[in-house]
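Quick one:
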Amino acid sequence: MKVKPIEIENKTIGEVLKELEKRLKSEDCYPEEYFDTLPSVDPEQKFPEYSWLVCYPSTGYEGHYILIEVANVDEIRKVALFGVTYQGFEFAAKAALACAKHLGA
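Output:
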């Protein structure tokens, strides 16, 4: 079944985050510890324009991370959204894959 990606154009980071949260929860892959913007990111700003978007899991000092990054034509990378889970790397990978699917990566 093909999934329609979240419409990102002309939406704020917060609006995209809310829609992504809803979809991750419906697929039982929402990171239980933390899923939000970084403190330095204003959720009211427009979702960044990008040339590519990447979602990936990473091992960290606090469990496992789910990172969503965007890069523009100059390849300046920005972390748009960030999640933390203590359910293991496999769960973080499942969540990152779901993020990629729903964001059209």
